[in-house]
Amino acid sequence: MRVSEGSRRIHERALRRKGNEVSMKTRIVGTGSCLPETVVTNDDLSKIMDTSDEWISSRTGIKARHLAKEETTASMSIKAAKRAIENAGVAVEEIDLIILGTVSADYVTPSCACEVQAAIGAVNAVAFDINAACSGFMFALNISNAYIQAGLCKTALILGAETLSKVVDWGDRSTCVLFGDGAGAAVVRGDEKYGLLAFDQGSDGTKAEVLACPGRTNNNPLIQTDQRLKFVHMDGQEVYKFAVTTVPASLQKTIQAAGLTPEEIDYFALHQANIRILQSVSKRLHIPEDKFPVSLDHCGNISAASVPILLDEMNRRGLLKTGMKVALSGFGGGLTWASAVIEW
Ligand code: COA
Prior knowledge:
Blueprint: H1 5-16, E1 25-34, E2 38-41, H2 42-46, H3 53-60, E3 64-67, H4 73-88, E4 97-101, H5 112-120, E5 126-130, H6 136-149, E6 155-163, H7 173-176, E7 181-191, E8 195-203, E9 211-212, E10 233-234, H8 236-257, E11 267-270, H9 275-285, H10 296-299, H11 306-316, E12 325-332, E13 336-343
Parallel strand pairs: 4-5, 4-6, 11-12
Antiparallel strand pairs: 1-7, 2-3, 6-7, 8-13, 9-10, 12-13
Helix pairs in contact: 1-6, 4-5, 8-9
Bound molecules: coenzyme A (COA).
């Protein structure tokens, strides 16, 4: 069930390297994000379905979300990527790896990462998408770390990007009010002093049905299939229970592996699913809520894009200072989860 050990071993081996080789940490050196122009408030939703600002705000903390009209998963990714590259101050030719986490790419093929590569002119990059739902950006971070530690790449662009409004069921008020659209990106590269200190990553495919979105059904001439489009369905209470037990445990394990205590962490930048999940994690770790920055109030849950958008907002607000300890965590469909502790 757990698939967390491999990448951690690569990282630890690299950190143990002695002699002439300098151990490099994988460091986030730039961030960027993009949200669609159109903002839809809870009150707007209450005009088109049987819901209310009171119900949504009190149960989730969400007040508004951005929904794509002209924007696509690729167009938002490209804008976020350009902003991250500019923020990092790297030349686009230096990027030799692009990993994009998404469950809502525009095409089955080409990958959204290849669309980004073409649009930004990252001619030296290997590009591919991954699907780890709301943990997608965190999985991309860990894969880029493994590539960097193994000497397979020097500068990676990692992204989380979603147009969830095309995969949610707009007839199901218990799910559609939760999600939004957007993209976030980060540039990562090896650094001698600062960067990733520890990582934890896991999956539990036996719980797949608590949060799922079916893909295309087979339409070959040999079988008759139901061609109706199928959308996201979720057992909200099961997902909630999973999040409030797994996330604090994963964070505790990662913080300990980094040689730190929760009190030494400056910020907890977690996947933005629900304010009550953030409050529960803060309570279980005995850490004040003001160390848990929030973007879900104006973005909703943007799956793989939540963590990089939050990081970009923190970065641009000047919250992140060199050497600060930041714990990150993503969790969601699969089920999947991943936590990291970084020195900014
Ligand atoms: N507006 C108004 N009423 C709504 C509603 C909406 N948007 N959605 C559901 N309801 C109603 C239900 O029909 C139900 O009514 P009933 O009691 O008459 O049957 C009632 O509200 C309670 O629904 P329930 O599903 O029990 O609510 P809840 O307290 O469990 O809250 C969630 C629902 C989704 C907010 C909560 O389960 C949750 O946050 N789960 C985690 C989900 C998550 O974070 N997923 C992503 C992880 S990556």
